[in-house]
């Protein structure tokens, strides 16, 4: 089943960012050395998995690469040049000594010598690459993951086709070997060469993820084959925040909905983003920003954190919220098991409607035990109507007034917070004083 990940969720979790900075989840994991590796990483991150075995195999592969600090001796300029050579729109050189000699003389004497230079340089760069990769894979031990064994198999198969013969130094390659290697690369094993380069790019992407895991002490996920949603995370934190306060998260078979409360600026949205990011990353098979994570597999993630008005269609914020909930309901019916986040449910309407609508939706979500829901709200009075539901877990973020100022702990606690700091923030900004001065004038 294809993993559910829509545009709203991608934007809420800042997965790919705006393309102008590294402040994104993609930017966090992107330590690739080549443009092709970057594209592979984008493809991996755009296609989360729902298959338990695929997730385990990918996680094992990245874990192994991270543990041995596998480092590819490649760079972007080298691979870009090789791709230019592979796309060269001239016939490959002939693979016999007489034609090779005549062609080398002809290319050097005629205006086409730039093509010959591209062929020579492309052949040299490929020889460097093959030698470096060959040396690297023979340094690996025999106890390697299945997924990595398969990738290495593709590489070895191509290298076995390409007999380097007596070529020791690519800088001193003869015209005969130039023709022979160009014939092999761009004609006889052209398709195999493209597969080889794509495998190198994939290696680059995996090495990038492994390097990030080692540098940031990320945790590799323990995937559970369970018919019921299970989430257990220790010391979860947001990967893009410095000195982030960690959270512990626990969802068991007995509770599938978390009712989250707390005053403004107490950390609810940051927590929900951190949790959503971890759930998304875990379904890539990537290591996560936590000390330990254990989960069952979901069929998708849907978040509603930064829902905007759709003014072009004439939608108010409230109507946009209603449409979003309808989208979630349809996806719940289609996908069966989803991880759902709503931050500040029904913030776009009056208190009475917000209370009634929140109660209706939360009570319904609480009955859908195959999925998991995290819902934050300022309508804390709803909690009194939910206490009798055994599947609802109540969590809150607290704050304390010290010397007349709020101090935020950013610690997730059990229970419901009825504290409100909205008026304090309004007074702190001295809005009333500004308005009074206008009226006086």
Describe this structure in words.
The structure is a single chain. With 441 residues, the chain is an alpha/beta fold. The chain has 16 helices and eleven strands. The longest helix has 27 residues, at 190-216. The strands form two sheets. It has a seven-stranded mixed β-sheet, with helices on both faces. Strands 2-6-3-4 form a four-stranded mixed β-sheet. The protein is 49% helix and 14% strand. Strand 10 and strand 11 form a beta hairpin. Helix 4 (52-68) crosses helix 10 (190-216). The model has no long low-confidence stretch (mean pLDDT 86). The N and C termini lie far apart (66 Å).
Short description:
This protein is α/β, with parallel strands linked by helices and 441 residues long. 49% of the residues lie in helices and 14% in strands. The chain has 16 helices and 11 strands.
What are the SSEs and their pairings?
Elements: E1 4-5, H1 7-12, H2 25-29, H3 35-45, H4 52-68, H5 76-86, H6 97-109, H7 113-137, H8 146-161, H9 175-188, H10 190-216, E2 222-224, E3 231-236, E4 247-251, E5 257-261, H11 268-282, E6 292-296, E7 300-304, H12 317-335, E8 339-342, H13 351-366, E9 372-376, H14 383-386, E10 392-402, E11 405-414, H15 422-428, H16 431-440
Parallel strand pairs: 1-7, 2-6, 5-9, 5-10, 7-8, 8-9
Antiparallel strand pairs: 3-4, 3-6, 10-11
């Amino acid at each position: 089943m294809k993993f559910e990940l829509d545009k709203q969720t991608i934007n809420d979790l800042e997965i790919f960012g705006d393309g102008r900075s590294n402040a994104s989840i993609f930017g966090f994991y992107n330590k690739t050395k080549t443009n092709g590796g970057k594209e592979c990483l984008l493809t991996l991150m755009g296609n989360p998995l729902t298959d338990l075995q695929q997730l385990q195999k990918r996680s094992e592969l990245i874990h192994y690469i991270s543990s041995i600090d596998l480092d590819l001796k490649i760079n972007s300029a080298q691979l870009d040049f090789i791709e230019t050579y592979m796309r060269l729109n001239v016939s490959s050189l002939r693979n016999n000594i007489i034609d090779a000699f005549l062609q080398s003389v002809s290319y050097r004497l005629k205006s086409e010598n730039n093509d010959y230079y591209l062929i020579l340089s492309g052949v040299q760069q490929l020889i460097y690459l093959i030698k470096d990769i060959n040396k690297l894979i023979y340094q690996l031990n025999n106890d390697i993951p299945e997924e990595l064994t398969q990738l290495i198999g593709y590489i070895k198969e191509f290298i076995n086709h390409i007999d380097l013969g007596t070529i020791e130094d690519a800088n001193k390659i003869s015209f005969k070997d130039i023709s022979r290697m160009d014939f092999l690369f761009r004609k006889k094993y052209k398709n195999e060469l493209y597969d080889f380069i794509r495998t190198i790019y994939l290696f680059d992407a995996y090495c990038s993820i492994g390097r990030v895991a080692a540098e940031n002490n990320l945790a590799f996920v323990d995937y559970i084959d369970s018919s019921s949603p299970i989430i257990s995370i220790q010391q979860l934190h947001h990967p893009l925040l410095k000195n982030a306060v960690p959270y512990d998260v626990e969802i068991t078979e007995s509770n599938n909905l978390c009712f989250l409360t707390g005053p403004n600026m107490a950390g609810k949205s940051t927590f929900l983003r951190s949790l959503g990011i971890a759930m998304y990353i875990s379904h890539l098979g990537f290591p996560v920003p936590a000390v330990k994570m254990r989960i069952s597999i979901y069929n998708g993630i849907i978040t509603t954190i930064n829902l905007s008005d759709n003014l072009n269609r004439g939608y108010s914020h409230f109507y946009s919220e209603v449409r979003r909930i309808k989208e979630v309901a349809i996806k719940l019916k289609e996908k069966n098991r989803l991880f759902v986040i709503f931050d500040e449910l029904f913030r776009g309407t009056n208190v009475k409607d917000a209370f009634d609508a929140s109660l209706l939706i939360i009570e319904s979500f609480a009955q859908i035990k195959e999925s998991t829901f995290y819902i934050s709200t300022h309508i804390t009075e709803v909690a009194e109507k939910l206490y009798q539901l055994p599947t609802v877990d109540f969590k809150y973020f607290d704050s304390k007034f010290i010397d007349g100022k709020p101090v935020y702990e950013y610690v997730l606690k059990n229970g419901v917070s009825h504290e409100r700091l909205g008026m304090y923030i309004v007074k702190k900004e001295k809005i009333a004083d500004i308005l009074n001065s206008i009226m006086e004038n």
